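User: I've been trying to design a sequence by hand for this structure and keep getting stuck. Would you show me what you'd pick, starting by listing the structure so we're on the same page?

Assistant: Good idea, let's start from the same input. This is the structure you sent:
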């Protein structure tokens, strides 16, 4: 698994609709690869994001 932050963020930015901010958010949520992101359930991911932002 990759752990170099700059490489992981660069990989995330290859996804449609993912720019610098979303890539950084994914990193902050503990996601370290596109493969790991693909395994996550959207509803759980949304909850983790909002909880991390203290909006729930």
């Amino acid at each position: 698994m990759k752990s170099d932050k700059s490489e992981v963020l660069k990989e995330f930015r290859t996804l449609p609709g993912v720019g610098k901010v979303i890539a950084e958010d994914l990193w902050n949520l503990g996601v370290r690869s596109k493969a790991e992101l693909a395994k996550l359930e959207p509803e759980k991911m949304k909850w983790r994001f909002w909880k991390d932002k203290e909006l729930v």
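That's my pick for every position. To get oriented when you compare it with your attempt: Residues 31 and 37 are 6 Å apart (CA to CA). The longest helix spans residues 42-52.
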